[in-house]
Description:
This protein is an alpha+beta fold. It is globular, with a radius of gyration of 24 Å. The mean pLDDT is 95.
Amino acid sequence: MGELLDVAxxxxxxxxxxxxxxxxxxxxxxxxxxxxxSPYPLPRAVHFDHEIGRVLQSAGLADALASCTEPASVYEWxxxxxxxxxxxxxxxEGSVSGWPESNMFCQPVLERVLDERARSLPSVRVERGCxxxxxxxxxxxxxxxxKRDDGSTFSVRARxxxxxxxxxxxxxxxxxxxWCDLGFHFDWLVVDVLPAEPRRWDPLNWxxxxxxxxxxxxxxxxxxxxxxxxxxxxxxxxELNDEATAWRLLAPWGVHSGNAKxxxxxxxxxxxxxxxAWRMGRWxxxxxxxxxxxxxxxxxxxxxLRDAANLAWKIDLVLASRAADVLLDSYASERIPHVRAxxxxxxxxxxxxxxxxxxxxxxxxxxxxxxxxxxSAPVAAELPRLGPGLFGDGxxxxxxxxxDRVRWGGATGxxxxxxxxxxxxxxxxxDPGVALDRELAAFFASLGGVTAHVSAxxxxxxxxxxxxxxxxxxxxxxxxxxxxxxxxxxxxxLGGAATLVASLRRRLxx
Length: 510
């Protein structure tokens, strides 16, 4: 029958890589099957936000990210006259997760970092050059058949399977999960450039809302630059998807073959859709296999990595028999509303920039310029709440919990590195652990939970006041954080710590 694995992952892009790492760090036997023998060498995604910075930190990648990302604080939208229509973001120190609001990168570089980390884990096996040709469930196991490039086939059995195999997912098709489509489709030429000499771009990331040619201009990671040009009504896809067209469109920006290398140009049809079912028995979907969105909010890959972060700790609890597999139903119920909100935001932003009619653009400009002049600061890029799932009480339940710099036990750094990530019971009023009786304390410890009293005076020192501000803003005295850094629940007093942990125990035992 062959070895029974814990989790089989189909697809080894960033989502499959991260999921393999998060499960491998917990000691589970993971087999990854990737169709292509070699990694795709050209850029695709270029942005991840502060939340994903923290997720990648939890995967042991914080140091590696420092050298392969470029922080970006504010995302500007301007019209053809250069007038400011919109500013989104805040300074690099202002995010709730302790990472810059936006981080620009080159996907092949990030994938190398993820691959090195995944392969360093002894319980993770990666096999490239093998296409999955059958995926089903039988006898409370998932079963796959894969075909290698040499034509030979082999089978894999696992307790759970996850399709992270992209927009054309074989797993999604085999399981019969249909798309829910919002019907927003536009064609854009994406051009990635390597400038020959360093050049300062100000602003670093922005949108040119010019009806003559709506254009995106952003960092492609350190030493790289990306342009995206919308297809105009009179242009064909073949006309747009041409190297000469790419150089012609770059010329007004002072970029030509004498001072830059054209790394990649490709036409994409931006879509807004998600799979109707993300779980079918022991099979689950994640990343582009489960959802697609326009790029205007920079949330496509971010959403896939959130899937991995949400799913990994739930699979862990089920595999460890600390929760019934009904817990996995909360994956879709939490993630689909969040993904839909990000798709709808991306579409609304797309409706701002994808305007090729001069009169409509002029009306848009008048309204948005007036609105921007009335604001005193950029619009904060607030992430939505997760949908209904594994949560307790409190107004912050389902929202991201804070991570800031702290000092404890002679160490200084981000909370997760100094005190510990995962399940965390945190209070600014005192030690929340004293509120737990022996039974609750033992249960929380079995989850790997940590407790912390964070304040200006310690014992965990709130070096920048981030925890004091978060608890005051949410009217909370104690908060219980989940392993994906979302708030399980809050309570107004220190004694509420016991209520939160007891609620978590009840929810997991159902």
